[in-house]
Amino acid sequence: MSSILGQAAPQVFACPKCAEMINTSMAQCAYCNAPVDPQWAVWAANAQATIASAFNYANNIMNIARALIVFFVVSFIPFLGFTGLAVLVMLVALPIMILLWLSKYQWGLQGIDKNHEDLKESRRRIMRASIIWGAIFLLRVVVEIIAFFVMT
């Protein structure tokens, strides 16, 4: 990251000794006075940014899964035909987003502790979104089959 003047903006990371959040411009921790290696601080800050990005992306995916539930239920209300299209779009987009998250933040992470609490919570959100997607997909298939038999 860089600031307006072209200098690198400080990034935050957890102190290796006390786990308090400090930034890369510090030579020592403000909380426990532990010395901070500048190269390690940059690596740790980048890892922290990656973990935060994984968490935010998983949170967005979970929000889309919740919206899928709402649109699926609303699609049964007459005269709201656009919601059926929204459900179909989300049924296609959600697994793609989940696979992209998995490839980037689950399978593609190297050198970052995959047992970090935020990554664990991210995986739980991805799993819940996958379950929601599967349930809505199956319900949509069942509804289509029932509609086919009722119409014929």
Summarize the structure.
The chain is mostly helical.
Structure in words:
A hairpin with a 6-residue loop joins strand 1 (12-14) and strand 2. With 152 residues, this protein is mainly alpha-helical. It has helices at 38-74, 82-106, 117-151, and strands spanning 12-14, 21-23. The protein is 64% helix and 4% strand. The model has no long low-confidence stretch (mean pLDDT 89).
- Stretches where pLDDT is under 50 for at least 5 consecutive residues are none
Strands of the biggest beta sheet: in what spatial order?
1-2
Summing up helix and strand content along with how strands pair, one would put the structural category as: mainly alpha
> What is the strand tally?
2
Mean pLDDT: 89
Rg is: 22 Å
Main sheet record = 2 strands, antiparallel
Summarize the amount of helix as a percent range: 55-70%
Shape: elongated
Instruction: Report the β-strand fraction as a percent range.
Output: under 5%
Ends: how far apart? 61 Å
In N-to-C order, the SSE pattern is: EEHHH
Number of helices: 3
